[in-house]
Structure prediction request, 1146 residues.
Amino acid sequence: MGQREDGMETGGNRYDVIVIGGGHAGSEAGSAAARMGARTLLITPDLDRIGQMSCNPAIGGVAKGVVAREVDALGGVMGRATDASRIHFRMLNQSRGPAVWGPRAQCDRGLYARAVRRILDGVDGLDLLQGLVVALELDGERVGGVRTREGEVFRARAVVVTAGTFLRGRIHRGGDDPVAAGREGEPPAVELAQALEARGLEMGRFKTGTPPRIDGRTVDYSRVELQESHPEDFRFSAYGRETLPEQRVCWITWTGEELREIVERNLERSAVYGGALAGKGPRYCPSIEDKIVRFPNNPRHQIFLEPEGLHSQELYVNGLSTSLPPEVQRAFLRSVPGLERSRITRLGYAIEYDYFPPHQLRHSLELRVIPGLFFAGQINGTTGYEEAAGQGIVAGINAACAAQGREPVTFERDEAYLGVLIDDLVTRGVDEPYRLFTSRAEFRLLLRQDNAVERLGPRARSLGLLAEWQEEALEERRERRERILGWLADTVVRPEEVNARLGELESTPLSQPVRVLELLRRPELSPEKLLRDLEVGGGVVPFDVTGDVAGAVGVEVRYAGYVQRERERAERLREKAAFRLGEELPYMDFETISYEARSKLEKVLPENLAQAGRIPGVSPADLQNLVLEVRRWKRSGSPQQKKARDAEASSSALPVPRLP
Amino acid sequence: MAFQPGEGNAMEVDTIVAVATPPGRGALALLRLSGPGAFEVLARVAPELARPPSPRRAVLTSLVDPDDGALLDRGLVTCFPAPASYTGEDVAEVSVHGGPLLVAMVESALVSAGARSAEPGEFTRRAVLHGKLDLVRAEAVADLIDADSPALHRAALHQMEGGLSHRLAGLREEVLELEALVMHHVDFPDEDDPPVSVDRVVEGAREVESRLGRLLETAPEGELLREGAVAVLAGRPNAGKSSLYNALIGEERAIVTPVPGTTRDALEARVSLGGYPFRLVDTAGLREGAGDIERLGIEVARRYLAGADLVLLCLPVDEEWGPGEEAFLEERGDTGSIGAPVLLVRTCADRNPGPRDGADRSAPRREEPGSDRSDGGPRVGGALRVSVKTGEGLARLRETAAALVYQGLVTSRTDAPLLTRRRQREGVARAHAEVRAFSRALEMAIPAEAAVSHLKEAEGALEELLGVITTDDVLDRVFRRFCIGK
Prediction:
């Protein structure tokens, strides 16, 4: 039992896992750790802001939507909260193949945050606490707990830091002095940043931004384009059936020549371009200043007007993120068709914050130098809610493992976008805020949104992440999948049953009966297109052809050859991953490896050869030599022994025997 | 090919030594050391040498046996500290006098001092492992050493300078670009840029495919240059084939390596004709028991002619065109077994002095084999008169043979990179097939993000060629045929 210096008993302040922060990373980490059976405390400066969407009110997108569904498959919060709050839905990339569809939802901010709170409140063993953590408590090398501003100490064997943009956050809006803030209207976390820095961790500075929000009553809707919500009854969550709120529309408009002139004229007043802000910003989610500077030939840029919520008239002006002064923001908004008379309700701003270059982490998201301490979210240099949530759930799982003495849990690149995300962070590092893309994944056909639960559900169940009702849903899904596959493989369709449908779909008619599975191999036919309301063998198709499961089966049947190829490539990668590299390897002694590669290897400390090969600056030649060096090093024991033997061999003037 | 980190005859990082000059007596011989201990090994054999030795400067010094200190020779020593050396390791070169015993003694002294005798190709292999050369260039080094014709020498030099490597690297970049185009299309559905159209992707793929195709078309020629074109001497007994064979290889003896025939009834020799490599095959064995003159040409055709690149049909000037020759000519063309051009050679021209230009006006009035070629080969009545006694027509025969086989091929026109090895041809062919499969897949409405897996395979093929991705296995294949000391 720990005792405070003043002798007060602290038994009530003792947890297995403490999570600092209640954003997307923090709520996943807290919920996951508690579901794993760890007594968990989530501390955040403002309990009313748990699950806050601090940037745009949207979840998902290409690649990001897959991550949201992977988090859900692991029993996470994000998918359910999105279903409970989404007021507009689009399945992106529908003109491409289903393997890269990206579900994207506009959410009601208030409903989202409330859903997160509701879900967290429903997790046994998770305590919430309002407070600002100012220091870490250490047990020797290990983390031992946290100290709040009030001086209270909470002890735990594992701590997850999900500080978002709060670490020494500073908000910029044009030439004015920056305001110290973690987010609009909230103070930054300065002491925690200092405490972490004092532990000798490497730090960096990044920036990100938000656009202004406007009063929807001041928009001229006759001058903007309407975008309807897709009608699908789509759910991010594979387990639950949250009730969808009523759906809203969005609007699209475009910037033009006048806006470009206004921004160009005022560039030096932008915090970013005026030099007030040094941190590096995301290339893929650029401010309007960035867009104007970097794409001077682009005559217009698309803007989405997204409702902030069902009961709010505010609109989020997606696409106009900016750090220009208030009067410039007003001026350029008024140059946009439909926004001529718009009134700003909240100004856009840029925020810069501390992050910790993620090569300091293991794949479990535990810091190498401070066992028991985990980082997740923007603190690791990422951008995006989904990226944050994905890291949060992995950090939460591993914090619980660390507290319970279980082996770390990691995900491979062919298993989940989560694996791609974390492996990229740890082995490649970041030099700008990291966002996920499908192009970052090598095994895109395997990592689909429609099969996230097939990929990760069984693992979630065995880790104990799922509630009973989620396990039942998982089992029900598996059975449904087998039924569908069985029906497709066993059912024969006759030409007269299907040729009319094939004609509509511009597919070659049948001349003799075939099994449905064969027919589905045609790339132009999906289960939905082919089988909806189709009578086969005297009855209609006995399953929901529009559902996730049928969709996933369809993809696997149609692209079987390609899916198989990816599996083979993944297998080759796993062979490489089977060559383990211990952290004790004396990389700097491996003189056959280039100096650059040696220093990178020493910095990153890859866990296996496949990871080593992905480190920028490590060439295939270096990799070959690394294999040889490691084998030799293992044979000859410690480097000291090896050196001694080398010295002996060279002094004896005998031929050095060639090692077998 | 699976990566097998657990096995393979991986190179150890010890110091290796080999004699770099050919065996036998010579004015000088060169020994090379490479490895982290090269300078230490050297110091034990050359104790007078300054430590550390001055880089890249030849120093005259005594060479001794490290066991007893006995003087072996005085030699020139040049040191190349890593990484500025051929292998990328510390390298030392030792020039000594070229007596076989002396060279063996110096080599054994270096081994006593801690070096290990190198395996064939091990120096170049180390150069590849240290990123000094890519695999294609390493192969060019081997070709350059083996070059026995100016044409192969030219091609190998160009390849070593990076001509082919650049082309392959450029093609890999183009495939990567294509993949990036597809992925951009997938990743940015709502961005400002208009989506990339499938047409643009298909067009790009076609472009890459045709570039790969053009490179692939150089393979027969490249392999011909490396292997030598097979020129078969055919004709009735006592037609002067063997005399011609001897004359052709004899005149080029300086750069000819006679190779025993792989089949018992043929002699084969490598020879450079008109600057291009040939494997000259004499079908001398057919004289015995081949009395049936009717079947002569067909017999020859069955055995050798199917694989020939050129046939020299010999007939003495003072003998009549006969049914044997007739039967032989019927084997030509698409229907017969002879695909190669046939050059009629009227031998023993000294028996019947003819026109000074060497053309034989008495040749049969028929279309000359190969006249369907548009590459300047001999036409009707264009048979060549040669005499091995007077040397008449031999020069013209060599030029004509070279022209018939090599004229119109890429090397004779341009400096374009050539595929000179089967490994290269197979790699490029794989990339070509995959890029083609990618376009086909798109045309069949298979989504680009699935079809893109073909591009990944194409990248893999090109990367393996260049050694960007390399396994012990590939390395072994490449270095198997190297001579020791390289």
